[in-house]
Amino acid sequence: MTKHELMQVRSLRDEQRELKRQRDELLEELLDVTPPDHVRGSYPEYPYTMHTVTIPGATHFRTDPEAAPLRDALDALDRKITRYGLQLVRVYGQVLDWIMTIDDSRTRRIFELRYLGGKSWQQIANAFQNEITQEGIRKIHNRFLKNI
Fold first, then answer.
1. 89, 98 Cβ separation under 8 angstroms
2. How far is residue 93's CA from residue 99's CA, in Å, rounded to a whole number?
3. 23 Cα distance to chain centroid
4. What is the pLDDT of residue 48?
């Protein structure tokens, strides 16, 4: 497996995250939110103490004609997110199967943390309680890829 193939898990995860962010922005435009309101009232029995009552707002989808293209775009984004999710599961499985063929436990763990966990070199070094520097981790990684 090449470094490019290994990086696909991270790339797909990042792309899916970006699509979800775009979806959230579209959803905000599609939602019509009535903000909560506050009124003053008193208790019906003595001592008739005044207090503030909060009336919750309402949230519903916009139904105006201008919202139709937004709904279509939201549906398209949902389909795309699903496709990326399925592709991510497939690629993740392939990478995991390949990583499990690595005999050395430390090297296998480095590859798991890097490609399946999405960790930086420093985070991987921290996972090893800094027994190995981030540069040492990178060297182990690169040597292994070079030798296969």
1. no
2. 10
3. 12
4. 84
- Measured CA to CA, the distance from residue 134 to residue 125 in angstroms comes to 5
- What backbone torsions phi and psi does residue 98 show, to the nearest 5 degrees? -65, -45
The answer for residues whose C-beta is within 8 angstroms of residue 109's C-beta and 6 or more apart is 127, 128
CA 111 to chain centre: 21
Tokens of 80: 């795309």
Spell out a b/e string for 71-83, using b for 16 or more CB atoms within 10 Å of the CB, else e.
eeebeebeeebee
First to last CA, the chain: 8
Q: How far apart are CA 101 and CA 12, in angstroms?
A: 23
pLDDT tens, residue by residue, 41-78: 888 888 888 989 899 988 888 888 999 999 999 999 99
pLDDT tens string 77-117: 999 999 999 999 999 999 999 999 999 999 999 999 999 99
